[in-house]
Amino acid sequence: MPEDTILIGHGAGGKLSRDLINQVFIKHFNNSELSKLDDCSLVNTTSKTAFTTDSYVIDPIIFPGGDIGKLAVSGTVNDLLVGGAIPQYLSAGFILEEGLPIEILEQIVASMAKEARKAHVKIITGDTKVVKKGQCDKLFINTAGIGKGMEEASHLWEPPVFNIGDKVIVSGYLGDHATTILAARNNISFEQELVSDVAPLNNLIIPLMEDYSTSVKFMRDIT
Fold first, then answer.
1. Which H, E and C letters describe 22-71, residue by residue?
2. Would you give the end-to-end CA distance of the chain in angstroms?
3. Using one digit for the tens of pLDDT, what is the confidence trace for 1-33?
4. For burial by CB atoms within 10 Å, which of 32, 37, 208, 223 has the most?
5. Phi-psi bin for 196: left (phi > 0), alpha (psi -120 to 50), beta?
6. Is 157 left (phi over 0), alpha (psi -120 to 50) or beta?
7. What domains are defined for the chain?
8. What is the model's pLDDT at position 2?
9. Helix 102-119 crosses helix 68-82 at what angle (to 10 degrees)?
10. Which strands form 49-56's sheet, in the order they lie side by side?
11. Which DSSP string do the residues of the chain spell out, in sequence order?
12. Positive or negative torsion for Cα 213, 214, 216, 218
């Protein structure tokens, strides 16, 4: 197996694991909490706290407009936002297939770091496991997210009450992401290139809740 690919030993907790952590994950995710390399990270919470988790498996792992890393950060951040919380911290667990090029892994980790900066969150803890070739499809990611509850959104923490005349508002075209993935997976081409619109929605949802919170009864991330 070439040295520039993931080996079973990269998930065994020894020197290979430490080298991978330092050369890929710490390089891009570096912050005061993560750099301690402890078994957990401690955070201070002084308000109502939101907590979410999600797992990401997608084929292809890199697609027009994004990749599995961008999807993982954006999806977790948006789950917190639509629940009425300001995202603060993420965890990231990686299941890697033996033989995955480290260059591809680093590209995805760098993408996650970029989206985390956009969303003003820190990735403060994580884990890496390696499975034999053929036991997973290149790379799976599990995340968890912690956010600070927005007082303006406290009514979102209760079951919603809908009324006749309520409006449904969407943040963009429906189906861009799913259609992009379908086209990339099956080598389908269109006259106009399809691009996934996956992105963290901090700059949309936080101002919305600050200015119009009483008008918003319910939010959902449909991806």
1. HHHHHHHHCCCCHHHCCCCCCCCCCCCEEEEEEEECCCCCEECCEEHHHH
2. 36
3. 556 999 999 998 889 999 999 999 999 999 989
4. 208
5. beta
6. alpha
7. 8-215 (3.30.1330.10)
8. 59
9. 30
10. 49-56, 139-149, 85-97, 122-131
11. --TTB--GGGGTTSHHHHHHIIIIIIHHH--TTGGG--SS------S-EEEEEEEE--SSSEETTEEHHHHHHHHHHHHHHHTTEEEEEEEEEEEEETT-BHHHHHHHHHHHHHHHHHHT-EEEEEEEEEE-TTSSSSEEEEEEEEEEEPGGGGGGGS-----TT-----SS-TTHHHHHHHHHHTT---SS---------HHHHHHHHHHHGGG--------
12. positive
Dihedral angle sign, alpha carbons of residues 173, 178, 180, 182: negative
Q: What percent of the chain has pLDDT over 90?
A: 77
pTM score, two decimals? Answer: 0.93
∠74-77-81 over CA atoms, to 5°?
Answer: 130
- CA-to-CA distance for 219 and 223, rounded, in angstroms? 13
Q: How confident is the model at residue 76 (pLDDT cuts 50, 70, 90)?
A: very high
The closest of 128, 38, 139, 54 to 90, measured between CA atoms, is 54
Amino acid symbol at 12: A
Length of the chain, please? Answer: 223
Work out the average pLDDT over 60-89: 97
Per the structure block, which two tokens stand in for 93?
A: 């667990």
